[in-house]
Design brief:
Blueprint (H helix, E strand, L loop, with lengths): L2 H30 L6 H12 L5 H8 L3 H13 L3 E3 L13 E3 L1 H21 L5 H16 L4
Antiparallel strand pairs: 1-2
Helix pairs in contact: 2-5, 3-4
Length: about 150
Amino acid sequence: MGQQDKSRDTAIGSVYDQIDAIYRRAVARSRRINAPLSQVEQSLLAFIGSNPGCRATDIASAFSLNRSTVSRQVHALADLGLVVEGDDGDHQPRRGRALSVTDEGADRLKRSLAIHREAVRNRLDGWSEPELKDFAAALERFNAAKDE
């Protein structure tokens, strides 16, 4: 392995460590301030809210997760009264049924997002607009890359 390869591997390791730190900080923040939602709950509710009528299989596909994992998580959200499936009124999760966020779920998602976005806003205090745009563009490029 050449020096350039080692340098690139070191930089990639640093990127991973920084992304990991962002996630750990968000989880710790949620616990510390008793945020309305965990990171998993927030991600699921945001997806369902942005894709009304989606199904657990859609979530599994979008997040590259096992359907049984998503089914358990959706069931937990339904038990908390944050999502409902279908419109027959029984509110029990079943595979293949359309999901929607309840008013309580939408409220808790809004509060949770506000808490985490404020933390990001505080971390970016003092950054210039061009720096923010460059950072956002780099993150968008990173997230647009396909997993292998």
